[in-house]
Amino acid sequence: MPLVHHELCFGCGRANLFGLSLELEEVTDGAVAGRCFLKQDHQGADRGFAHQGVLAAALCEAMALACGLNAHSQTVQIELFARAPVGVFLEVQARAEPATGGSALATAVASSDRLQVASARGTFRY
Asked: Rounded to two decimals, what is the model's pTM?
């Protein structure tokens, strides 16, 4: 069953027509994997390619869900390596380390057509 913060969440919500509709499922304790479709509406300045902020949103969403439904971002660092075309699926994976002192460390990667396009790491609090 897909993980969802709420139905209007930009990252994972199913009722947000402008959102990513990121479909993530828990693969192991503290790890999620899934995908979203990069729509024409997700284009950035480079025609035919997803806006970098869309890629960042997908990574942030995956890390938060890997940490748990009640996790909130404290700090996030994102590195974009390549452009991701629209009209394809973006595969996303994220993993969280066990929480200590009310916060957890998480990492995520995104790939398009088997090419890694972005990675991220962040600290999330509960």
From this structure: 0.91
